[in-house]
Here is the input.
Amino acid sequence: NTLNHLTIQECPYITDTGVGKLCARLKDKLKSLDISHCKEITDKPMKSLAYNCRYLKKINLAGCWKLTDETPTCLAAVCNRIEIFDISGCYQMTDGSLRHFKKLKDLELLVLKFCRNITHKGYHYIKTFVPEVYYNHDDAPTWFGYDKIPYLANMEVGDIKPKDFLDSDEQKKKAIKGLSGNSNKKRKKKYSSEWQFYFINIL
Here is the structure.
């Protein structure tokens, strides 16, 4: 039997090592992965995930607060079939991650809820390339448990600065102009109803 869809939510005992070994066993089979709210996961197994699960179409990393810009960098470089990408509550991701999402030509929905260090400028940039982007940088809901983690509870908007982002308006305009054919306009918004239900329940 082939395991195409895997959900491991809110599991405090899932480690980087476990994710890496799991990906190696599921090589090229996995299409959908949900490891949301597995708070011990870091960037370390993401290269293994990208290399072994390059046919991923959906990935949910919401609540994995230890992840940084390195994660979308690794995944977008290899897993170019991703259609849905959720990084809600990934407080340490910044505008620097956004240029990697635009590499995903099949990306239909990008979820950036409760991303403290992704700015309005970053949001307006990436929504030019992705048909649907859900965004805010509000505090995560209490059930995320961030209020019990001092590092997160005390984090202000913009505390972590991006290492790499289009800073000037001129660069931004050049990047948008260089997008061949504005292909995102031709993509249909087909995930609205599926994800609206999710956000009704977390807000």
